[in-house]
Design goal:
- By secondary structure, the chain is an alpha/beta fold.
- The chain has a single domain (5-176), classed as Rossmann fold (3-Layer(aba) Sandwich).
- 47% of the residues lie in helices and 18% in strands.
- It is built from eight helices and seven strands, in the order βαβαβαβαβαβααβα.
- It has helices at residues 19-33, 46-56, 67-72, 90-99, 111-126, 139-148, 156-159, 168-180; strands at residues 5-9, 37-40, 61-66, 83-87, 103-106, 134-137, 162-165.
- Strands 4-3-2-1-5-6-7 form a seven-stranded parallel β-sheet, sandwiched between helices.
- It is globular and about 45 Å long.
- The protein starts with a strand and ends with a helix.
- 43% of the residues are buried.
Length: 181
């Protein structure tokens, strides 16, 4: 049986020892302990933290990288990546992470993370990807979506595609529960 893959999106900025890094590390650990394969963008910050947490818990870590990023940020995949999937462009990398997952967790992040979250949400809305959990971890996402939400543009059933979590344990438990239904 194929193990389910959970894509985790987040910022490249957090450093080891920061609260954001520790939170991302715990996401990776708990996903791996629950038997999931973890996929990230494969580089630094929360991508490294998630990868490290998953690898240290005995999980399988996929890093989805691309030539385009490495042209302006000449670093390879983080050392915890066990399987690298490489694309030429950022667009191809993003499409892989959104379309080749069984669920997604979005950690706090910036513009890139926002684009990952909104593409995933849009693809779920129109059926471009199969129904799956899309978990937004942290108050930043609740505030962002709340600011954006207008009932004349976003239907309640589309809002229901999102699961907001304040704690890592709640985020991962939602993923686990989704697949036990």
């Amino acid at each position: 049986m194929k193990r389910r893959t959970i894509s985790v999106f987040g910022s490249s900025a957090p450093q080891p020892g920061s609260a954001a890094y520790d939170e991302a590390w715990l996401v990776g650990q708990l996903l791996a302990e629950a038997g999931f394969v973890v996929a990230t963008g494969g580089y630094s910050g929360t991508m490294t933290a998630v990868s490290q947490g998953a690898a240290e818990a005995g999980g399988h870590v996929i890093g989805v990288t691309c030539d385009q990023i490495e042209q302006f940020r000449p670093i390879g995949p983080n050392r915890w990546v066990q399987e690298e999937i490489r694309y030429r462009t950022l667009r191809e990398r993003l499409l892989h992470l959104v379309t080749q997952s069984d669920g997604m967790i979005v950690l706090p992040g910036g513009i890139g993370t926002l684009s990952e979250m909104t593409l995933a949400w849009s693809f779920l809305q129109v059926g471009e990807v199969a129904a799956q959990p899309l978990v937004l971890l942290g108050d930043i996402w609740r505030q962002t979506v709340q600011t954006f939400y207008a009932p004349e543009y976003v239907r309640e059933k589309d809002m229901a595609l999102l699961f907001f979590a304040d704690e890592v344990e709640t985020a991962v438990a939602h993923i686990v529960d989704y697949f036990q239904q």
